[in-house]
Structures are given as C-alpha cells and as structure tokens.
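Reopening closed ticket. The problem is back. First fold of the pair:
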Amino acid sequence: MSTPFLKMNGLGNDFIVVDARTRSFQPAAEQIRAWGNRASGVGFDQLIAIEASPEGDAFMRVWNSDGGTVETCGNALRCVAWYLDQDQPDTELKIDTLGGKTTARVLERDAKTGIASVDMGKPRLDWTQIPLSEEMNTERLELQVGPIDAPLYHTPCAVSMGNPHVVFFVDDVSTVDVERTGSLIENHPLFPEGVNVEFAQVIDRNTIRMRVWERGAGITKACGTGACATLVACARRGLTDRHANVIMDGGPLHILWRSDDHVIMTGPVEVEFEGAL
C-alpha cells in the first residue's frame, strides 16, 4: 500500500512529511536511505511523521536521511504547524517531539506557503544536558580544530535545543570547509550522541551569518534548532542581543531568546509537491 506525503521545506531544509495519525508508519533504515537519496529517490534532509499525541495536537517523529532517528527539527516543526493549521486555523498548536514539548502558531498562510512561529522551549546549557562525555564549561568548550599552537577553530559554545549543538565563532564563514570540519566534529568523543555543528559570523548585534553541518544529514541549507542554538551561544558570549536574524545558506530566521528563557523561532514554510511512497 502506498503512503501519501508532502514534500516541504523551510529555507531549503527539505522534508518528506507523512500524516501517520491514523495509519502505521514504521519505515526501516534502508527504506529511509533509499527515499532520501537525491539521485535515485525523492531526496530530503529529514523524513517527518506526524503521529497522534495523547497530550498535544500531534507528535512529530524525525529521521535523518541516513536512517537514524533524531530528537527534533526546528524547520520541520514550522512545516508540521502549517499542515495542522489547515484543520485548526488560528490556534496555538501543541507539537510533541522526542526533544520535548513545543507550541507553534501559523502567522501567515496560503495554498503553498506560510510563516510560522515556534516556541522551542528553554535552551539546555549544562554539560549533562548537551550531553558531553566529561564535565566542561559549555560556554567555552576546551575543543579545537587544527594545530595546538595555531588552531583553525577553537573554544566553541555548546547548546541543546532538544538536540545537541556546538557553535564555533569565525571571522568569515564563507572560508570554512563545513563538510570537512563538520564531519570531523560530529562524531568527536566529547559528544557521545553526536552533535550538530554551526559556524557563526557575527555581523552586528542583531545579525548573524551561519552555516551548518547537521548530524546524520551533512550540509543543509538551514537548521532551525541550529539557528536557535547559535543565537543563544552568541548572546551568552555577549556578541549579540537576545534577538537576531540568523542568515543561513537558505535564508534568514528570526530568533528571540525571551526574558522567560524560552527561544522563539519565526520563519517561512513552503510546499513543493505531493507524492506517495
């Protein structure tokens, strides 16, 4: 039996979205890898299943294109909110994930696009919450890439937004070899569950240019939780205010780290096409 899906993206970070609230959807890792192959399959960064939730409006399950399950995905949360908003317009939506509970609201929408805002909850900043394999100050990790006496990148900040992130601060993000460095750091022993890797260039107090290597997916055009983690990291270091536009390869997200410690992510949603698996 075929399974219908929507191909969606948030700033080019693309997904297959399956409504599994009334049907079983339990794909094997090899199926996910085949579907995710951009040469022979549909092609995507993440596969998303919208499942029933006993407490919220839905539960969002996320697989990376390598077949592995991850806790959450910020850009996908906006896409799921847009999908649910079709039946529950102008309401605050409760979307549960393996990374925690979130709420979302669609601010603008038409047949194929929209803008959604998601309360991503509080950032987790303790070393046990990232998690790290040893106790360390997460604002300034003892980690570097390159020669000891002249490292290319060093002293990053670690943040969990329901999934683990490490943020390196650079002068010019365009010069970073994201694939080489990101793949090296993703499976570093300091991160027992792997880690998403961001490279951040602070333009001014309210503007950050960022590129990302996503755990299990590689280079992507955007990462919602990564944008949130980057703003939190920059604010912790005193490099920016607690709100900024985070500009990624796919475009900008607005991130606000509110006074109540919740991180609010706002950005676009796009439906590319419908299909069936």
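Second fold of the pair, where the issue appears:
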Amino acid sequence: MTVAPAYQVLAERIRDDIMSGVLRPGERLPTEPQLCEQSGLSRSTVREALRLLSSQHLIVTMRGVNGGSFVAEPDAGALGATLSDGVGLLLASGAVTGDDFLEVRRMLEVPAAGLAAARRGAQHLAELERAMFDPDHDDLARRIEAHASFHLTVAAASGNSLLSLVVRPLYSLANRDAVELAARPPFWHAVDRDHRALLAAIRAQDVAQAMELARQHIDNIRPAEHMNVVAGV
C-alpha cells in the first residue's frame, strides 16, 4: 500500500475544508506557523502543500503586511482552462473517441438550445449575430472562431452558468490541421445554414424547433467528426 506524502495529505485536508464550505472563498487560511503547529509538520512541508493548492487554483497567496494564503474566489476562466486541458489529454491519448465527443455534444447542446430559446436576451441575439461568418470569403481561423463563439453564446443564453462552463472545453480544442483537411467548403456552407436556422428559432423563442435544429446540426457534422475533427467545429 502506497502512503501519500505528508504535504499531499495536508493539502487534501485543506482541500476538503474548501470544497465542503468550512473554508469560504476569500477566507484567510491559518498562517504557516499555525499550520505547522496544527499538523505537526515542518515549514517546508506546509509550504509544499500550499504550493500544491495554489497550482490547483484553490488558494491564492499574497505578500505584505496583510498578506497570507486565502481561499480563491471561483474563476470560471481558470476552471474552464483546467477542464480543457483534461479533455485535451484524453483526446490526445485516444481515451476519448469522436463518437464519445458527439454523444456529449448532443447531451449538452440540444437542451442548451431549448433553454436559450426560452431565456435569451437582446444581448445574446446580438452576440449570435456577430458569430455569423461568410463560408465563401472568411478564412479558416475566422470560421473556427465564429463557430466556437456561436455555440458558447447559445450556452450562455441558456442562463445556466454551470452548463456554460462544461460546454467551454468542447470549443477550445481545435486541431487546425485536421479541420483544414476534413472541413471543405460544403461543410462550412452546411454549418452556416444550420447556425442561421438555429438563430432564427432562438430569436422566435421556439423551444422545440431550436432543440430539433441543434440535434440535426450535430448529426450533420458527424462525417467531419469521424475525420478527426473532434473540436472547434
């Protein structure tokens, strides 16, 4: 049986207190000497535990008279980046397949489209309009960027912040070479058509139509997904 290092055990204890709400965002942790006294560990071991928690974005450390280690405030950007890194590693290792990716997209994006149709605001409609692209004249970078922006805005329009966070990694993992190889002009014309139809349904607040169009869109891109276009389109 492998015994975890002492710094890791301490870090896990503090992490449990943070995740359970015993320690709240913005709350100061005990000082290093206090943690040494409480845990019976050396100062170097305590510092290693704090470094580990900091690398996990669970605490922030500030210097100065009023410094110390504090429980980090939730940061959607940092959490999204961590999720993206994890999903990227799974894709690179082959542990996640194109079919896996499509199934998750269907589970998330179809209900998200329905919620967006029910809850969207004027600002969401404006952002969706800005996410339109010209499949004949815009370059690949613009098309990939616009596609990601469109789907992230649909998720944001759902009004569910957790859904927006979970969807984000699906659109931050573009393999540009694979996209360029597989996604020829007819593909981008189909994406443009699907996006415009979905925008119309969301604008009309037609929940059933929005969900059906989102489902059809994912089915339409299946051939490209099987050509290793597993993200960004």
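Update: turned out to be a display glitch only; the data is intact. Confidence is low (pLDDT under 50) at residues 225-232. Strands lie at 59-62, 68-71. Please close again.
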